[in-house]
Amino acid sequence: PVTSLAPPQRLRFSLGPEIAPEVEKAKRHLDSLAADLDFDCFRHAGVGGAWLPPEAVLQVALQVAFYRAHGSLCASCEPTSLRRLLPGATDLLRPPAPPCLALATAMDTPTPQRGGGGACPPNPAPLPTAQVLQGQGPERHLQGLRQAALAGGEPLPPLFTDPAYALANHFRLCTLQV
After folding, report:
1. Cα end-to-end span (Å), the chain
2. Are 61 and 159 in contact (CB under 8 A)?
3. pLDDT of residue 50
4. Is 174 helix (H, G, I), strand (E, B) or coil?
5. Sequence ranges of the domains in the chain
6. Does the domain at residues 54-108+123-174 carry the CATH identifier 3.30.1070.10?
7. In this predicted model, which residue has the larger pLDDT, 98 or 70?
8. Among 65, 95, 61, which Cα is nearest to 78's?
9. pTM score of the predicted model
10. Taking every annotated instance into account, which residue ranges of this chain make up the domain Choline/carnitine acyltransferase (predicted)?
11. Which of 124, 23, 141 lies closest to 89, judged by CA?
């Protein structure tokens, strides 16, 4: 809960004459980007609840949009906080590809199919999501293995040099902002 967190500590920086102009230039650039931003926030009464949270709807919509634009899904992730276990720790949730692909192709079908019971398929995501939130996800464990090998001067295990591993970890879609 937010109430149990300590208030943030203000940090003071002393900028020397060599860096101060660069910081000021970056500030002006950021201010110009913020001035050019259009932001619209809305709520839809038909979305939400424990079964289908709004962020899940948006993530699936992003997957479908990517599929429509490129004809395939891409490696995607949603960084999530593990603050219950360790303050500042994060891990990655990956959407389940087969259901996302099935939905994207179904939504791209020119003639929608009607009937068939109308029941939603079971959601395969809860178990992996629960494991990640408990600190048992594979992403950070693999990162730890990689870092341990590098720190110990050991060669990287073959998994980390496999092209499929590099492809699976090149996230073209990251829903951190969701």
Report:
1. 20
2. no
3. 58
4. strand
5. 54-108+123-174
6. no
7. 70
8. 95
9. 0.54
10. 5-178
11. 141
